[in-house]
Amino acid sequence: xxxxxxxxxxxxxxxxxxxxxxxxxxxxxxxxxxxxxxxxxxxxxxxxxxxxxxxxxxxxxxxxxxxxxxxxxxxxxxxxxxxxxxxxxxxxxxxxxxxxxxxxxxxxxxxxxxxxxxxxxxxxxxxxxxxxxxxxxxxxxxxxxxxxxxxxxxxxxxxxxxxxxxxxxxxxxxxxxxxxxxxxxxxxxxxxxxxxxxxxxxxxxxxxxxxxxxxxxxxxxxxxxxxxxxxxxxxxxxxxxxxxxxxxxxxxxxxxxxxxx
Length: 261
Fold this sequence. Notes:
Blueprint (H helix, E strand, L loop, with lengths): L1 H21 L2 H4 L1 H4 L2 E8 L10 E6 L5 E5 L5 E7 L2 E8 L5 E9 L4 E3 L2 E2 L8 E5 L14 E5 L1 H6 L17 E3 L13 E3 L7 E5 L2 E2 L17 E8 L11 E7 L11
Parallel strand pairs: 1-7, 1-8, 6-9, 13-16
Antiparallel strand pairs: 1-4, 2-3, 2-5, 5-6, 10-15, 11-12, 13-14, 15-16
């Protein structure tokens, strides 16, 4: 009887572990990755706000979309947005449909995309090509820093292929001058003169800072990185008392086959 129970337990345990391994990683990462947002104001040709306009956020890389309507102040807001390439479509009876395409949303950004509607029929379409540009206006966050995009991540020569060397491209960062317990000073950074213990490391929205050593507990392959962001300054309470934050976004699948060798 004991042998039968042991075999049953082993089978159940194996099935559960297989389910964990096969579970899609993208779905579980939606919350941790979706730290960006897209918001804006919709106005008419006389700069008056337009309420109850339908706004659609289209994900050009994955083919998904989300919808909302503007409030009485003409504003709209999409929270929990994954970094990527988007289009913002605005529709309202009595006005031409306006689409702002190729909007690049970067990691941990509060992007502002305003829309101006022209008078006409909804069937008439006005298309604005943002040409992959990143909205620069951020009225929510008070952090400073910079983003290293995928092109620079791929093409910049890094001695030893250490991904944290990308942080040195932004002023105010330097390698740690303190030898930690593991001796891996290459995995630590000092930001704006603060101790290495005040530097946070986030990979896909998950904190990877070692609580015992104060360095990054993961060393990523350069080919796995999509965006690399360094944040510094006085952070809002949701990010805690940190001297600097290293945010890394890894590559994910899209509707287009891609890869490298």
